[in-house]
Amino acid sequence: MEDVKSLISQGRKVIGMMTIAPEVCSRELIEFLNENGIVVAAGHSNATFREGVEGFRNGIRTTTHLFNAMSQLHHRDPGLPGAVFQTPDVFASIIADGIHVDYSMVSIAKKLLNDRLFLISDAVEENLREAYMHIRREDRFTLPDGTLSGSALTMMKAVENCVRNVSIPLEEALRMASLYPARVMGTSDRGRIETGCRADLVAFDDEFNVQKVCLNGSMI
Fold first, then answer.
1. Which of helix, strand or coil describes residue 32?
2. Cβ density class 58-91: b for 16+ within 10 Å, e for less
3. 3-class SS of residue 114
4. Considering the chain, what percentage of its residues have pLDDT values greater than 90?
5. Domains by residue range for the chain, with CATH
6. Which of 17, 26, 30, 172 has the fewest Cβ atoms surrounding its Cβ within 10 A?
7. Which of 77, 122, 200, 206 is catalytic?
8. Cα–Cα dist 86/127, whole Å
9. Does residue 122 carry a catalytic annotation?
10. Contact present, 159 and 121 (Cβ < 8 Å)
């Protein structure tokens, strides 16, 4: 708890979300983060189904990169993914690159979670020094031993993958990249094209190439 309090005090107005492993974090810690306006996510976790459900009851709102770096969906213990599926008000992010998660599993998760599933890139950049290295491969980043360490995915490519490989309608894939993440973060002025919302927009062509970017109403 003292470590978390130190992080929050130094990162106030900077930290918006924190990922924790529910099986090793107390209810008091989760409550502290929520009280300080931090969205709490479950991830990098070996939680059982019951531990996951308990974490969600204690105030965890979402899940970091569903299926990756977490206990697996198994018929004897559904693990953290099963806890997400069975908890109606919990969201989950997913890396839709076809590498971190097979497209068929993205489709299954979408059918189960509907508007609770949203897109993230989990993108990193190459780093060849010090403890945690990212080595650039053709379509991903790995540790020196070949273990996946991050994606080379852009958000636009994630939308395209959902449309072309998961048969998700374009309008819904765009909501997964904008409206649903805004709901998770509790930001009412993002993710929608409406009066009073920030004009953060991209224009793209039929091949999903970004043509124009508008940031807070200004073309850049």
1. helix
2. bebbbbbbbbbbbbebeeeebbbbbbbbebeebb
3. helix
4. 96
5. 2-121+155-195 (3.20.20.140)
6. 26
7. 122
8. 38
9. yes
10. no
